[in-house]
Write a structure and sequence with these properties.
Rossmann fold; 9 strands; 4-stranded mixed sheet; binds guanosine-5'-monophosphate; alpha/beta; 5-stranded parallel sheet; 232 residues; binds adenosine-5'-diphosphate
Length: 232
């Protein structure tokens, strides 16, 4: 049976970096390439990062009921084509979806056992640094992304796992453990020492086990003075 994994994160958290890394090391994992009406960025290529389409084509796909989910993000339309799930099922592979919070909610309603993972940066300052280092966006876009990040982060508790992307190598290992642990849970093949180790590593990132660790990260996104105003 196909496991569906949803990954969401504020832009700049390192989601693409992590997803690209685990795709190379986990066999049998398909990646859904979304359709979007936004123009390509940097060296993005049609059919690699996204299928770039005009709004009319997107709307025609919507009318044809070709999307499993779709949403408007930063003024552009994004959607996951149903065919990616169909093809993963035919191949007996799992499927990874890189989608936003609205899309994650739609998928969870349709595929109740989909596993959702939210990636967080270690703090707001580091997110800003990463957005700048990536040097893909103009300054006003970076500012918009930071404001949006604060709003997106409020949704973290809707996800099954929260992964704080601090040291990259550790985060790749953590994401790998989560994906493999969910496979073990489904297969029931949990008895070996290796399986126990993977399950334990994944468990560290389950929502109920990270709540305390998240407090300083969440606090770094609250504008200065807002906490005092809230307390009054
Ligand atoms: P997203 O897909 O979430 O928008 P990216 O994967 O493009 O983010 O990462 C944003 C920037 O941060 C990139 O320049 C990337 O190389 C860098 N980055 C990703 N993960 C880390 C990390 N753990 N530590 C430092 N830099 C990172
Ligand atoms: P970007 O334009 O930076 O690549 O992506 C912007 C946001 O759109 C990200 O949060 C990304 O996860 C989300 N996104 C990408 N593809 C899809 C999709 O097919 N559906 C939904 N709902 N969101 C998507």
């Amino acid at each position: 049976m196909t496991n569906v994994y949803i990954i969401s994160a504020p832009s700049g958290s390192g989601k693409s970096t992590l997803v690209n890394s685990v795709r190379k090391i986990i066999p049998g994992l398909d990646f859904s390439i979304s359709y979007t009406t936004r123009p390509p960025r940097g060296d993005e290529q049609n059919g690699r990062e996204y299928f770039f389409v005009q709004r009319a084509e997107f709307e025609q796909m919507l009318r044809n009921d070709e999307f499993l989910e779709h949403a408007e993000v930063f003024g552009n339309c994004y959607g996951t084509a149903r065919r990616f799930l169909r093809e993963a099922e035919q191949r007996g592979h799992d499927l990874l979806l890189d989608i936003d919070v609205q899309g994650a909610e739609q998928i969870k309603r349709k595929i109740t056992d989909a596993v959702s993972i939210f990636i967080l940066p270690p703090n707001r300052q580091e997110l800003e640094t990463r957005l700048r280092h990536r040097s893909l966006d103009a300054e006003n876009v970076i500012q918009t992304r930071l404001v949006t990040a604060t709003r997106e982060i409020e949704n973290y508790a809707k996800y099954d796992y929260i992964l704080v992307n601090d040291r990259l190598e550790d985060s790749i290992e953590a994401l790998k453990s989560i994906l493999l642990a969910e496979r073990l849970n489904r297969s029931g093949d949990r008895n070996s020492a290796a399986a126990a180790d993977t399950l334990a590593r994944a468990e560290c990132w389950r929502l109920s086990n990270v709540r305390e660790r998240l407090q300083p990260i969440l606090a770094s996104f609250v504008p200065e003075g807002a906490m005092d105003t809230k307390r009054k």
